[in-house]
Amino acid sequence: MSIYWSDYIESSCRQNVSFFASSEFLMIAYHTTAIITIPLSVFTFCTIIRVTPNKMIKMKVPLLIALAWSTNLDLMLTINIAPFMFFPSAAGVSMGLFKSTGIPPKWLPYMGQVSVMMIGVCFVMLLENRHSQITTIKFKIRRQRTRLIYFGANYFLAFFIILAFYLDDSNQLEMRQFVFKRIPCPAVEFYDEYAIVLLKGGEFLPFLSITAGLAIVVIPSLFFSLHTIYHLNHVKNAHISEATKALQRKFLSYVAMQVMIPWTALVCPIMYSLYANKYDYYNQALNNFSMLLMASHGLMSTTCTLLLIRPYREFVMSVFRGNREYDAKMMWATNIRSQGSVMLGSATE
């Protein structure tokens, strides 16, 4: 790697660096993850199109949209951007394909953050889909046009809510000095031409943007999920059978597990970065593992979709068994037995 920045000082502190703290390890791990995840995403996409039974037909489009944005995030993290981060500072360098396209370095983290925000909006969309199917709920989105406007506004906000502080052309040589105060001896990748420092630390506008971004995801998610759970378990209606409510609980449990398990792959690295920021803790190997965990989001998401949702799980098993007579239309042809005593239903039955 060629040294670009003039503030580079030769030092023995970079000798005998662990392989896990190197960009070589992270790139190998990124590409290995991509080799597994991208074909699996394509297979999952085809499975949803082919196998989704009639009783789940209203989940089909939200699942496909969520899978599309999940695959986009995978591509961003493992191939296109491939970020090498320098926590506790808000700094990093792109090692991916976009590095050679001439895109200004500061816009690459913007694209990555937007991709993460889109995943949050997709989680809300999946929960709203379940919420809208509960007949006892009166306060819900009923018209498709209203739904399109609502989620269109969410997608718009995902693109523009964090845009403001990317428009400021900061002096990178000055910004880098704030990093050196926290990380006296950063990895040599910090001197790459595409290394970018986004924040000094303590700025209000980025804090406000991130808080607003979290709010448009967390608040609707809590409302749609808790409201749905309440109506499924505590609101009685003589026109709704227990078998129907059990089926709705089952679908909700699918969505809840599909949201929560991959969400940990996004939340854990963010929590680690906050910990590192609070205590000025710099460990490049842990930085690499945290980003690798985030890059595994798509692998977790597609695996949950294929294994937790029964029609898809049985289709996957039929593929492994070589069963060419598998008929998706026969899936769940019979009524689900009453599960009145079950609060959320089982996703694995």
From TrEMBL:
It comes from the Eukaryota. InterPro entries: 7TM_GPCR_serpentine_rcpt_Srh (IPR019422), Nematode_rcpt-like_serp_H (IPR053220). Keywords: Membrane, Transmembrane, Transmembrane helix. The chain crosses the membrane at residues 28-51, 63-87, 107-127, 148-167, 207-230, 251-272, 292-309. The keyword Membrane applies. It holds the Pfam family 7TM_GPCR_Srh. The keyword Transmembrane helix applies. This is Uncharacterized protein. It comes from Caenorhabditis remanei (Caenorhabditis vulgaris).
